[in-house]
Structure prediction request, 248 residues.
Amino acid sequence: MRGRRLATGPEHAAALQTAAEPAAELAVVGPAVAGPAVVNAARIWRIWGVDFDARIVVTVTACMLVLLGTYQNNFGEPEYGHFVYEALIPLAVILFVWHESPGRYGMILGDWRLGLPVAIGGIAIMSVVVWYLGHLPEYRVYYSVLSGQRPAWRIVVDAGVDMFAWEFFFRGWLQGALGRKYGTDAIWLQMIPFALMHVWKPELEVLSTIAGGVFFGILSWRTRSFLWGWLLHWFMVAWILLVAGSYI
Prediction:
């Protein structure tokens, strides 16, 4: 058999670079809101002799500051305070600190052929589930207080604003930033603070946030958009407020 000559020196380096280009492209253009790690090396911050990925430091620190600030120092109506903290602050980080497009973090329609039917099917299923839950005593007590004296249309609008910020924060910004380093494991990582932000709600709802957080995370990852999860989550919150508050 005739042997195949191996490329060496500059020829070998060029061949390796050519072979690596498709893989590098796939690493950037993944099927997720924030796909696998980007090709460029991460910026490193050294703190007290320990190296950290700067993007992860900013993301996690900002996440905790936003969540703690949001639920300790609401100003005005809570839904709009949440919008400032959970939507506008992360958006400012994306635009003015990272100099990136919000579309990279799910603020696009994405794969609507998958997202739309999932949202519609989820609304159909959850309309029945939430109707049942909304008549349980613990849900009535909790959500009737949140409904207050607002008219029904205000409840629907306010819930939409609140859940837009909520889904962008967890499934757009947080999952997107973590996903660039950890890939699909970011779905499970974003679920942790998401679930913890429900600890004062009825027990059944608190437990359901583990599966719910993962479901919304996968939906966002698959469609490259948090908007379809937002539509479903918006319906669920508005519906429970209306049912438990005896509007319907």
